[in-house]
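for ur thesis appendix - BD-FAE-like domain-containing protein. copy paste whatever u need, i formatted it the way the template wanted (i think)
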Amino acid sequence: MKKGLELDPKSRSQIMISKSIKPIWALILISLLCHCGADDDREYEEFVNRLRADEAYIGFFATESACISDIHDEYLNSRKKFFLAVNRAQEEPDGAIERFIEYCRKRSIIDETCESEWERVLTVLSYELYANMPIFDYSASNITEHRNITYAEYPNKKLALDLFLPKEPVDQPVPCIVAIHGGGWRVNRRLWFEPFAKYFASNGLAALTIDYRKLPGVEIMNIVHDAKAAVRWARANAESYGIDPERIGAIGASAGAHLVALLGTTANVPELEGQGGNGHVSSAVQAVVGIATPAFNLEKESLLYEMLGISENEMKLISPIENITSKSAPLYLIHGTVDKVVTPDNSQDLYDKYLALGVHAELTWIEGEGHGFYEGNDRAIRMATEFFLKQFSNEN
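the 3d part is after this line
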């Protein structure tokens, strides 16, 4: 062998080992590899079936047909890798999206006029179908679970919730907390906030987590409609699940905090109700906890409505601080003092306006913590539970 092609000792040992593997072990290895391939194929088919079931909302196959010029075997293999990466992602799969788009671009199989729409559809697909994971680990044996309940229906989309109830029998209906996850109105799913709901249920409160439509698949106004629909569902179905329809609260973090703060300040704004169902039922809530809550203060966020693609008037309509009145629901705000995503003045402004109008509000600063202080631990949920129990006590 020529000097330039000499194998290093490690490579030599690997070759020797591979040659020494007995036939039976070689067969086992081949079997395992085939089994993994079969598992991938099965996972891929299941993902495609989920995607087809949601085609009316996501529009992947229609967009693919219009935008991809050559759907050949190599493309289909790359698409399969993309789908599997999304299906297994526990956090937002932005890298998988970028790699697949870059593949299409390099192979010149994407129509240039379609690139922005292709990216939008891949983003909607990924954020709708990726695995996600709970915000922290929490289990409880004293709760009952009801899963995959449809709470809102639109022409191209059904939305589901999971409901968690105290297992121990109670002699009177219990309060219910609507838990709405954050993620920039774009990412995460109801699974992310499941530990919050389980914690509430283990402490004697009913709680539900929801999936909602997300940017860029819909406009932010549609997301508000979904939050309202979830409250209406809880109230409309209160008797069936032992829920007190007069004691419904809401908790959210970041983008979810914006939604629940709006629930607490817009009980009587017809433009925000939407067409998700139970339209005859009130979407009012009686208490709200906001974690890292965006205030949507128009005086400070003049560019936000442009970023969200809405008019200034629409921005005002979905602004929690613009809608505070003397009848707003009691509010508890929890915020990290060094939050650079949703700056602390958002909660301070909300708190100040609540007090100025004589409405009950509380504010807790988490010293030295940034935006994600509530992730990976139960600190915020413990504070929230104490607030809700106090607000919904018989003495209050």
